[in-house]
Amino acid sequence: MGRRDRPPTAGPVMPEKMPLRLGLRANAAQFTLLVAINALVGGMVGQQQTVLPLLAEDVFGLSGYTFIFTYVAAFGITKAIANYFAGTFSDRYGRKPVLMVGWLFAIPVPLMLIWAPDWGWVVAANVLLGINQGLTWSTTVVMKIDLVGPNQRGLAMGLNEAAGYGAVAITSLAAGYLAEQYGLRPAPFLLGLSYTALALLLSGVFVRETRGHALLDAGQHVARSDGLHDHLHADLTNREILAQTTFKEPALSSASQAGLVNNLNFGLSWGLFPLLFATADLPVDQIGLLFAIYPAVWGAGQLFTGGLSDRIGRKHLITGGMFVQAVALALIALGDSFAMWAAGTAILGAGTAMVYPTLLAVIGDVAHPAWRGRAVGVYRVWRDLGYAVGAIAGGIVADLMGLNAAVWAAAAVSVVSATGVAVRMYETHPRVPTPPR
């Protein structure tokens, strides 16, 4: 056969695009990447938590607790607002663009903290940090829920939150060490610069869009047999989603109030604990260690509690976790030594680990995939307003009645929150028999 008689040579065979699948194992590479990125998100908070309250007193000469806590309030309010837009925009435009924009807001933050000539710069830096945290953390949450499907939401949220708050703990500890060795500025904030650069690289080059997985999940969505969610359709408006998540739907609204109180405790600890621990004349590195215990136990505990909620359900973990937080806060209020405070912060971390990933799993259980991003955004609006409420209310009580009184007040609010969940929330992830193989 001559050259002209030969059949044309086929071009290179391109592999067919793999069909989208739900599940942690099927999406392990992307899921692991998003876990790593969320660790960098948490690290941006950890770089400043130990240092800023001390910077306020030692460098800027601030003495009123309420005034010192303004940076926490600024962070919480802007993060709450950014959460809402993260959910709305991720449903409308996709998850990855929102993630990238969120990291762009992080670029100036460490530089502003390093060069801040007055406290106003610190507050402004925390406004930008709040936007960064709201856009990036909300988006990674939604992306992981997209990838894993309905059966492993608790585990997915446990891994996500463990990475984020584990990084808060490690970075808080590292920042405290750097501050002790090299001063309050600039060394601790160089961590944030490196985190931002790495996150922009990973998010821009390696992260893939996950909205297609949400559409696949929506196509496979099965209504509950008990009819609890029959009124929650796929075509709810933004106003209806806001109303359902805030006060109408029992599970969604209970999760929102518990999330707010949980972060009220975190916001209070962020601004108040370093000052409380300093009353015992502890060195900066020990204060950093005490502050790191809380998110470390919180982060590590979520590796267990998230998956546990997939097996035993959500409600009892949330109720029990809020009560455990109340006990921990009472112990911290009674404490006056490193050992007692270490025990209290560890118990507080355990209680938070029971609650944090489980609340996000509740939102994933109830919200339809078509408006999941917006429901997560609304929930995180209320949850992260807790930062501001805890900082402002805690500062006012501390100014009027002392640091310990502010901690006791938070313990009482945690008891009220736990009672509300016990009375109003239903189980959103009832156990079902495993089908025969």
From TrEMBL:
It comes from the Bacteria. GO terms for molecular function: transmembrane transporter activity. Keywords: Cell membrane, Membrane, Transmembrane, Transmembrane helix, Transport. It is a multi-pass membrane protein. The chain crosses the membrane at residues 24-45, 65-86, 98-116, 122-143, 155-177, 189-207, 260-280, 286-305, 317-335, 341-364, 385-401. Its main location: membrane. It is found in: Cell membrane. PROSITE patterns: MFS (PS50850), SUGAR_TRANSPORT_1 (PS00216). Signal peptide: none annotated. GO terms for cellular component: plasma membrane. Residues 27-429 form the Major facilitator superfamily (MFS) profile domain. Pfam families: MFS_1 (PF07690). This is MFS transporter. It comes from Intrasporangium chromatireducens Q5-1. The lineage of its organism: Bacteria, Bacillati, Actinomycetota, Actinomycetes, Micrococcales.
